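ingest -> fold -> write
write: protein_1
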Amino acid sequence: QVQLVESGGGLVQAGGSLRLSCAASGSTFSINYFGWYRQALGKQRELVATITSGGIPNYADSVKGRFTISRDNAKNTVYLQMNSLKPEDTADYYCNAAARWALLGREGGYWGRGTQVTVSS
């Protein structure tokens, strides 16, 4: 089993920055892919960014150029640096991990409990 714990959320003014962290524990040697997802109140969960074991990132169009995903395999931690934050970025942010690409973001992967991000105007 893999356990994921997110941290770094909070309240920030529009245009500001936050860095989210996701620390993995347990059978972390099997993790190949990490992803960040978010869910706003009354909305469906959506992809924010993913990263492969080799460090190749992918971003949703809505955050491209503003957010940066990275990972530190030695620390079993993935990060999401969020710059130029907008009110529409307000959501609960969740970390996901999976051994296979097909499982990322789905029930077959592992999920943290989330961290809340609120961006004020």
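write: protein_2
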Amino acid sequence: HVQLVESGGGSVQAGGSLRLSCTPSGFTYKRYACMGWFRQSAGKEREAVATIDSETATHTASVKGRFTISKDNTKDVLYLQMNSLKAEDTAMYYCAANRGTLSRLLVFEERAYKFWGQGTQVTVS
């Protein structure tokens, strides 16, 4: 079994930057085909922030131009570079992964992802 461990969260002033990372721990018997970042802020449902697979990287509209998802192609380590942070970016950020490929209709749906990290808090003031 595999654990996903996020790191890099913290408190930052508006306009600042953070880089989140998601590192699989334990043995990985198969590479993750799809990985993504989700977030949940107080009073709101969990939402997809960005996902990446072998075909494309997709970012939700609210973070385009500010956040960039990337992935180590061989180790399945996932990153989220967050620039120009805004107060509305404050949330718990979760790493998610799935072994199999996902259709374009499913990549932003949390139910499609089997593996999840514990979350890392990002607070923008």
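write: annotation protein_2
The chain is about 0% helix and 45% strand.
The CA atoms of residues 33 and 99 lie 5 Å apart.
pipeline exit 0
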